[in-house]
Known about the structure:
- There is one protein chain.
- The protein has a single domain (about 10-25, about 35-300), classed as Ribokinase (UDP-N-acetylmuramoyl-L-alanine:D-glutamate ligase), CATH 3.40.1190.
- The chain is globular, with a radius of gyration of 18 Å.
- It is α/β, with parallel strands linked by helices.
- About 35% of the residues lie in helices and about 25% in strands.
- It comes from Streptomyces cinereospinus.
- One of its GO terms (molecular function) is kinase activity.
- It holds the Pfam family PfkB.
- InterPro entries: Carboh/pur_kinase_PfkB_CS, PfkB_dom, Ribokinase-like.
- This is PfkB family carbohydrate kinase.
Amino acid sequence: MSRDIDVLVLGGAGVDTIVHVPQLPLPYADSYMIHDGIRTRAGQTGDFVALGLAALGLRTHHLDLLGDDPEGELVRALHRERGIALTAVPQPAGTKRAVNLVGPDGRRLSLYDSSRGHPDDRLPEATLRELAGRSRHVHVSITQPCAHALPVLRESGVTISTDLHDWDGENPYHETFARAADVVFVSAARLPDPGRTLRRIAGRGRARVAVATAGAEGAHLLADGELTRVPAVRPPAPVVDSNGAGDAFAAAFLFGHLNGEPPRRCALYGALAGAHACTVPSTRTDAIGRDGLLARAAGADA
C-alpha cells in the first residue's frame, strides 16, 4: 500500500471558547466585563498538531469523531481552509468543546465539557487500519477512542507518538499511551523530577525518544539513553498566549524526526515552533511554516 500520508493525527478535534480574564486564578465576583470579547473557534490539541504539521509541508490526515452540530462545522471548515484531510466519524453526543480562560501573561485554564463523549466510543477499525496502512507515522491524542485504537496501531507496525500533556507521572490512563509510543511528549508542569519520569517512560515502554517541555525553562530530552536540557528560545514577538505551544512543539519535533534529524535538532525545531505559538492570540489558529522554521533554526545556529 502506498504511504501517501506522512502523519495520521488521531483524536483531539474540537472547539474552544476563549475568554480573556484580568487575572488567574480569577477571584470570585458576580460578574466581569470582557472587553476583548468572548470568541469561539475551532482548534483543540489534534487540530493544532495537524495544523502545525501541514504548515511544515507534511502530508497530514486527521481522524476523529465529530458531531453534526455548529461546533463540528467549525472544525470541518478549519480543515477545508487549511487543506488538511479530515475523516470525521459521526459522534451523536456532539463535538468536543472547552472554555479557555486566558490571563494577561498568556497562561490559560481550560474547562472541558466531558459530556460530549462516552467511554465506549470507538474509531471504526476498518477505517483506522486503512489510514494507518497509508501512513508513515501516527500521532495519538489521549482521548478514549484513541486508547481503544492503540492495539490496532501496534498491529499495523506504524511508528507512534503521543502527548501526555500535564501528566503527574502516576495516572495509569496516561501510562497506557506512554508505553505504546515510540516518541513521547509530556509537560513538566506536574512532574517533580522530569528526568526520572522520562527514564521510566523509556524503561517501561518502547519509546526511543521522550521530551518533557518546561515552557520558559526549555525542555528535558531523553534520547539514546542520554538525558540533556534543551534551552528555551526567545519568542519573536511579545508572548500573548501559551495555548497550543505544546502542540506546536510536537509538530515541529516530528517534522525533524521524520526528516531524519537528530533528536537535539528536532528539539530545537520544537522550541522555535512553541515560541512562535506563544505570540499568536488564542482567538486565532496559526502555525510557523517550513521556511520560517528553518530560517530561525539557522539564526539559532549562528
